[in-house]
Amino acid sequence: MIRHLAIVGATGAVGREVCAIITEGRIRVDRLTLLASSRSVGTRIEVAGRSFEVAETTERGFEGVQYAIFSAGADRARLFAPAAVKAGATVVDNSSAFRMDPDTPLVVPEINPDDARRHRGIISVPNCSAIILAMPVWPLHRVNRVRRIVVSTYQAASGAGAAAMEELRTQTADHLAGRKVTPRVFPHPIAFNLFSHNTAIGDDGYNVEERKVIEEMQKIFHEPHLAIAPTCIRVPVLRAHSESVNLTFERPITPQEVREILSKAPGVQLVDDVSANRFPMPIDASGRDQCLVGRIRQDISQPDGRGIQLFVCGDQLRKGAALNAVQIIELLESMKP
To answer: How far apart are CA 44 and CA 52, in angstroms?
Structure first.
């Protein structure tokens, strides 16, 4: 039983998903505090059959809080997470604010649970694309070291929040009705379109999202020299990200060996029905805790047998954010003497 849990950013897409997970009974919470910006004060959210009123996030709002899940963006995390820690809370942060801080663990419980032990009050949840990539790659890496990853992501509107999801719905309706489509959340039309992930591009040609995938995978795996080449694309899918992954291993490996390893991997579900031509799809991954993995095949461009291609779909709001945060709290609770 969690004595007192605070959710910062409770009215956003990830915050509401945390509330849904609590309602499902994944964790039991004695006292729940819902926090958001001043715009959302007074909003009521039903959680586990009880109605809660959203309060404004302030530095004084964390008294008595045991755990605080932050899902309010990097700026809000930098502003309020230290106050929560000072008040005695352990912060699990979904933003990018502390991910690459060497003193802050970056944790996926199925992969690097022991890293959580060294936290100093804050534990970061990795970027959603990094989590969804890491889930099938890590169990393979443990058996046969991965030397190189080439990944193309197809990222749903959910990755940009509730307003972006609504923009996809609105633009789709407008387009089908012949009305003018006007982007507001995204820089380009999202309905019936796709475009390079809308983050700033650095001098090396990689955007911020792609840089996150590289750096966070290396940190999670404790492999600072792991070669990763990502291309991140926004697609007109409501929720659940997809990724096309090409792996180069240290030693030869067969598709059947990959299937056997992944069939036993926690948090992963094989969807690899060749005869029915059915493989992972975001529509099937939406609302699911597991990352769906399939389309497993030998990379015939690597004649030495060290190359494997696969396709993965994972719900960005669940395993890519809210569920991973809840799992970290479960992990911390299990570590108590």
So the answer is: 5
d(CA 110, CA 104): 18
Q: Which of 119, 197, 241, 291 is catalytic?
A: 241
CATH class of 130-316: alpha beta
Amino acid at 101: D
Residue type, 64: G
**Active-site residue among 128, 232, 291, 313?**
128
Rg (CA), the chain: 20
Domain boundaries, the chain: 2-125+321-334, 130-316
The Cα–Cα gap between 61 and 38 comes to: 13
Position 337 pLDDT exceeds 90: no
Query: Are the CB atoms for 310 and 88 separated by under 8 Å?
Result: no
Topology alike, domains 2-125+321-334 and 130-316: no
Q: In which element (H, E) is residue 284 found?
A: helix 282-285
3-state secondary structure of 20: helix
The pLDDT confidence band at residue 311, using thresholds 50, 70 and 90, is very high
Q: CATH 3.40.50.720: does it fit domain 2-125+321-334?
A: yes
Taking Cα atoms as reference points, which of 124, 105, 108, 125 lies closest to residue 116? 105
Query: Residues of 55-72 as b/e, b for ≥16 C-beta within 10 angstroms?
Result: bebeeebbeebbbbbbbb
Is 128 a known active-site residue?
Answer: yes
Q: Which structure tokens are listed for 148?
A: 């190189």
Phi, psi values for residue 185, rounded to 5°: -80, -50
241 as an active site residue: the answer is yes
- The secondary element (H helix, E strand) that includes residue 310 is strand 307-314
Verdict on whether the full-model pTM lies above 0.90: yes
